[in-house]
């Protein structure tokens, strides 16, 4: 009986706290923050990149082993109207992906275990231009969604390397283009605004550089290889 009373009390308390969060007016931090025409900040974050493959023939999928990466960058925000902002978020995004091939790609070809795996390192200088659409501020927080386009320069690209996979070099293009969508919440703290956000990025162009041999087991069956990924960023303004 005592446990039931404690559980009921906790449920009632959570309901009351939730109601107060959304209805009771609190002291509003940074009251004029959203009225600024221009504002600036920086972000730190985590990324998880993947590849989406389209194939020429129906063979086994190329598997992508993902590893978490690191993001860091700057933020510039232009207030367009009350609930709309234009954001520029240049940043550095570092990641590594491993491609794992099936042995079926090497029928009639001598291969070793190292031929079945290729490491793809990427260091992107990322330039997104995003529109931010916010809801009305509720006490000291405000949800929003973002969408936009971006371009990136891959500093780890070996696009111009004359060696290809026959020499162990998996090549990717230097210039990339993406579209992005995401959401987040602005938290208005006493001294600054803190914003956690999640964003999906999807490449518009093919990233793979084909090998010289059109029947290469590594690139011959790949019609397109496009980056996709998820960013988890923490912004301070």
Kindly describe this structure.
The protein has 237 residues and is mainly β. It has one domain (38-236): Beta Barrel (Porin). It has one helix at residues 2-23, and strands at 38-55, 63-66, 68-81, 84-88, 91-100, 117-134, 141-154, 175-188, 193-203, 222-236. Strands 1, 2, 3, 4, 5, 6, 7, 8, 9 and 10 form a ten-stranded antiparallel beta sheet that branches. Strand 6 and strand 7 form a beta hairpin. It is elongated, with a radius of gyration of 24 Å. The N and C termini lie far apart (49 Å). InterPro entries: Beta-barrel_OMP_2. Residues 36-208 form the Outer membrane protein beta-barrel domain. Keywords: Signal.
Compose a concise summary of this entry.
The protein is mainly beta. The chain has one helix at residues 2-23, and strands spanning 38-55, 63-66, 68-81, 84-88, 91-100, 117-134, 141-154, 175-188, 193-203, 222-236. Strands 1, 2, 3, 4, 5, 6, 7, 8, 9 and 10 form a 10-stranded antiparallel β-sheet that branches.
Total number of distinct structural domains: 1
Which class in CATH terms? Mainly Beta
CATH fold-level name: Porin
Q: For the terminal residues, how far apart are their CA atoms?
A: 49 Å
> Looking at the structure, what is the overall shape?
elongated
Radius of gyration using CA atoms only: 24 Å
Please tell me the overall pLDDT: 87
Helix residue percentage:
under 10%
| Order of helical and strand elements | HEEEEEEEEEE
pLDDT below 50 for ≥5 consecutive residues: which ranges?
1-22
Going by CATH, the architecture would be Beta Barrel
How many strands in all?
A: 10
The secondary structure category is: mainly beta
Strand content: over 45%
Number of helices: 1
């Amino acid at each position: 009986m005592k446990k039931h009373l404690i559980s009921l009390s906790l449920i009632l308390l959570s309901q009351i706290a939730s109601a107060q969060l959304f209805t009771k007016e609190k002291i509003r931090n940074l009251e004029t923050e959203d009225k600024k025409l221009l504002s600036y900040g920086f972000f730190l974050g985590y990324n998880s990149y993947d590849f989406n493959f389209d194939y020429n023939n129906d063979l086994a999928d190329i598997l992508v082993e993902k590893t978490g990466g690191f993001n860091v960058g700057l933020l510039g925000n232009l207030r367009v109207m009350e609930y709309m902002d234009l954001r520029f978020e240049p940043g550095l995004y570092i990641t590594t992906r491993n491609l794992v091939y099936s042995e079926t790609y090497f029928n009639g070809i001598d291969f070793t275990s190292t031929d079945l795996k290729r490491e793809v390192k990427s260091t992107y200088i990322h330039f997104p231009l995003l529109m931010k659409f916010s809801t009305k501020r509720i006490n000291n927080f405000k949800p929003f969604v973002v969408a936009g386009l971006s371009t990136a320069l891959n500093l780890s690209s070996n696009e111009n390397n004359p060696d290809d996979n026959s020499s162990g070099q998996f090549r990717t293009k230097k210039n990339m283009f993406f579209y992005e969508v995401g959401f987040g919440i602005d938290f208005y703290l006493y001294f600054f605004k803190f914003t956690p956000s999640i964003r999906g990025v999807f490449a518009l162009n093919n990233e793979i550089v084909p090998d010289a041999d059109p029947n290469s087991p590594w690139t011959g069956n790949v019609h397109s290889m496009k980056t996709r990924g998820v960013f988890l960023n923490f912004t301070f303004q």
